[in-house]
Amino acid sequence: NAGVTQTPKFQVLKTGQSMTLQCAQDMNHEYMSWYRQDPGMGLRLIHYSVGAGITDQGEVPNGYNVSRSTTEDFPLRLLSAAPSQTSVYFCASSYGGFSGANVLTFGAGSRLTVL
Amino acid sequence: DAKTTQPTSMDCAEGRAANLPCNHSTISGNEYVYWYRQIHSQGPQYIIHGLKNNETNEMASLIITEDRKSSTLILPHATLRDTAVYYCIVRAYGGSQGNLIFGKGTKLSVKP
Lengths: 115, 112
Description:
The complex is a heterodimer.
Chain A: E1 4-7, E2 10-13, E3 19-25, E4 31-37, E5 43-51, E6 54-57, E7 64-66, E8 76-78, E9 87-94, E10 105-106, E11 110-114
Chain B: E1 9-13, E2 18-23, E3 31-38, E4 45-50, E5 55-56, E6 61-64, E7 70-75, E8 84-92, E9 106-111
Parallel strand pairs in B: 1-9
Antiparallel strand pairs in B: 2-7, 3-4, 3-8, 5-6, 6-7, 8-9
C-alpha cells in the first residue's frame, strides 16, 4: 500500500497563476480532507469529503476548490494563487469518516510558495 | 466544540517516560480524546485515542481523568526519534464535528 500520495512535493507559483495539488489514496477510505499549515501554526482544515460526489467547506475554504469524482482522488485547486496561500498542504484520509473513529492517515505534504 | 490546552513545550531525557498533559475542561460526553504527533515537517501521525477508559497501544498510553476534563499521553521510554509536536484533540463522532481540529500542540524535545 502506498497510503496517501501527494504531488507535487514542492511548487513555486506567481501571483494569479492556477494549479492543482493532487491527492490519491489506495486504502478505499471514504473520508478525505485537506489541511494547510503555516509556520509555527497548527493545521487548519480547508475542505473535506465524506465520499465520492460529496464535499464540504472547512475552516479556511476561501481561494480553494475541491471535487471528489472517485473514492481514490481528492484534488485541491487554487484558481488564482495569492501570496497568502504560501503554506504546506497536507491531504489526509480515513476509513469510515464521521461514522467511525476517523483515524487519519496523512500524506507527506506539498510545500507551495506564491511569489 | 471543546477546546484543548497544552503546554507550548516540554523537555524529556532519553530513556525516561514523557508525560504530556492536556486540559479539555469543556469536553462533551460524546467527544473522544485523540493524540497525534508531527515529526519535523512530516504529515501528522496518529498515536492513540480514547473516550473515558485508559488506553494503551504499542506507541503510548492515554490516561483520562475520571471527570474527563484532562488527559495525559505517556511515552514510556522516550527516544530521540520521539522529538515532535504532539497534538491533543477532542472530537465527536458524526456530522461536521467529526473533523479533527488541530491546535498548536506541545513541542516535545527528547535530550540525550
